[in-house]
Structure formats: structure tokens, C-alpha cells
Amino acid sequence: MDNEKHNHLLFAGDPHGCFDNLIYAVHKYRPAAVVMLGDYNLEMPLENYLQAVIGMTQIYWIPGNHDFDSQAEYENLYHSAFGDNNLHLKVIEVGGLRIAGLGGIFLGRVWRPGKEPKWPNRESWLACKSRSVKKMPLHIKHAIWHHEFEWMKANIKADILVTHEAPSCHRFGFAVIDELAHAIGAKQVFHGHHHEDYRTRLQNGLAVNGVAMGGVVNLAGEIFT
């Protein structure tokens, strides 16, 4: 695969409010699509940060944990012009490649792999709360839920998995991410969250790419910024 094909799809690490590297990479490489890996820390709607590249490429995203730090940050992402481009628990196809997304992080109060899930589903969590609790609070909303994770394993097929959490190769990663990638047929994983650029390959052949804070990589895991 040549460089032009590699650059057809870019992956952007946690911006934390700064999108300069992503904008630069889109202008330089003109990818068909960009997938952002969470933690945007938006003080205004997402489209305000990306005005310089709107119309130049498709823009997709998964949520990270910091996108739930405040109601404003949540709304600036989920209610933005790109609100429908959330890849969490979904699949898109770009250039013949299917890309699936898993946003959020594992929370012990909901489900931490290696232990039994605390709740069978979101509805059961709400059912155990007082009548005054009408919706799930933000500090729970960003959790990865076991029933949704299992649904994804059983129902989704993709070539690439994008996650906020890391697979087992990272010292703070989780083997269940490896298992998910295997279950859906993915050959590559791109993840954010830990702000580290690295490339490795697991024993089962799965290629893993960590993307640094504000970093941008292509399909080969090559670092642009």
C-alpha cells in the first residue's frame, strides 16, 4: 500500500481543545476521512474548531472521558453539527474499509473487566435510583457498559476498531479490547486516552496504534505531527 493510500484515512489523538495539528494534516494530505479518538474539551461547538476543514474531509469521532466533564462540553460535542458522526457502537465504511468505534472508559462503578458488571444495563441502574433521578449523570454516562460491549462483539464486523481505552499491549490497557477486535474481525486498533505514540503488533497479528495528545497518524501508524 502506497503513501497516498495510507493517507486516505487519518486518526487524531485527544485534542484537549487544540485542533491545529489535525487542521494542518487535513490541508496537507486531503484524506477522505478523519476519525478523532476522544477528549475534546470543547468550550464551543465542535464545528467552530474545525471551520477550516469543513467540506474538505469527512469528520467522525468517538467520545472520551473528558467530554463529560461538564454539561457544556457534552453539549458542544453531542449537539454540535457533527453530533450524528459519533462512531460509538457503530460502523462506517471509508475507501472500502469498515471502521467501528468504542468510546468511553471502563468504570469500576459500572464494569471493570476482570470483575462482574455492577449493572446488567443502563435501565437497571436508573431503576435503582430515587424517583428524582430522571436521567443518567455525566460521570456515569461515559462508562463502557458490559451489555453494549457484548452486543458489539456479536453484531458488528469491521476492519478497523477505534477506541478511547487501550488494548492489552499498553500498561494501562485491557485484554477485552483485544477480544473485541478479534470478535469483529478487525486487523487494526487505533486508540487515544494515554497520550502516547506507539506501534506494535500482538501475537494474534492485531496491529495496535496509540496516538499522542493532539497527534495525527495515518493507516500505517505513521506520525504526521
TrEMBL record:
> In its keyword annotation, does this UniProt entry include Secreted?
no
Q: Sorted alphabetically, which keywords does the UniProt record give?
A: Plasmid
What residue stretches are annotated with the Calcineurin-like phosphoesterase domain? Answer: 9-196
InterPro entries, per database record: Calcineurin-like_PHP, Metallo-depent_PP-like
Q: Does the keyword Transcription regulation apply?
A: no
GO MF terms held by the record: hydrolase activity
Name recorded for this polypeptide: Metallophosphoesterase
